[in-house]
Structures are given as structure tokens and as C-alpha cells.
Amino acid sequence: xxAASEQPLRIVLADDHPIFLIGLRAVLEHDERLTIxxxxxxxxxxxxxxxxxxxxxxxxxxxxxATPQADGLRLIEQVRRHYPAxxxxxxxxxxxxxxxxxxxxxxxxxxxxxxxxxxxxPQAIRHVRQQRRYVAQAxxxxxxxxxxxxxxxxxQLSPRELEIIRLLAGGLTVGEIAAHLHRxxxxxGAQKVSAMRKLGLNNDxxxxxx
Length: 210
Known about the structure:
Order of helices and strands: HEHEHEHEHEHEHHHHH
Helix content: 55-70%
Largest sheet: 6 strands, parallel
Radius of gyration: 20 Å
């Protein structure tokens, strides 16, 4: 039992930015109980690496180059589906409470901001060793504030704005919503923009995640 417990934790790193890969490696190489067994710079390279290389933890960037807007969520879903027992630690530069909720709901073991990697990645790895989840302090604060803001913002939406947000969430386009509600595209577009402003959402990707 003792010999097994002393085996280094095998880690795979994934990030499309070479500098961040170097940074991840530099932070983790200080711990002799860890060994980096592979690195990938795209979702495709990561999928191939995981097929060929046994590991104990995946540390991955959330958004790597790909066509779909929600690629990061899809990447996590695919890894969870093919390797359900593999702990995943996600690192991201994004700052969106709705996105953080979506990531955590997929069952990741760690969620970190790239701004605090040096301090918090070792802590996240220690939590993973103990089969405990780790969420960075800044992200925990954003989740708390986001939950409060979401309730307040939803209360401020007009009935028509709320209706449009729900239809958009159902997959309809602005043009389809306008036809469905017998309003002009300009009116629906303006109500969409107003609702997004109240919800603190800056683009369609953030709206989709919300």
C-alpha cells in the first residue's frame, strides 16, 4: 500500500498557448510527487493523447481553438463521457458566473483562474489527491455575486424581455421570434439587447451559457 501511494500523480496538460503550457509545467514540476506525462495544444490533440497515455489528472484550458462557440463545455463533456473517472481541473481567463456554474455542473474537480495559477494550482492538485473539489477564491466570489445579481436582474426584466430570452434559449433566431410574436425584427433586437444589458451579458456566447 505504501509503495502504491508513493507513485507520482500522472498529469496531462492542455492549453493552446505555449506560454501557459510552460507556466503550468513550471508550477507543477516543483512537486516531486507529480509527473507530467503529456501535453496537448488543441481538443483534437488532447483526445489523441488521452487515448494513448494513461494519466491520473487532466489540467486543461477551457477555451481552445475550434469552431463551436461552446467548445469548452463540449470538450469537458466529451472527456467526462469517455473517461468518467478522470479528475479534470479547468483553468480559464474568462469571468462569467453563468459559465462557472455550467463548468461545475459537468463535474470538474477544480476550477481556476489563469491569473492565480501559481498560488492555487498546487492547492487544487492537493484537493484532487484527496478526492475533493477545489474552486479558486476569485471564482467562488464571482459565483456568489453572480447568483445575487442574477436574481436581481431577472426581477428587472420586463415580461416581453423575459419572453424573448426564453425563446432565444429555445434555439430561435431574432427573425423567427419576430415572426412568432408578430413584432418587427428591430423591436425584438432592441428588447434582446436591453435584456442582455440588464443581465450583464456582453455577447451571444455569454447569453447562450446563461
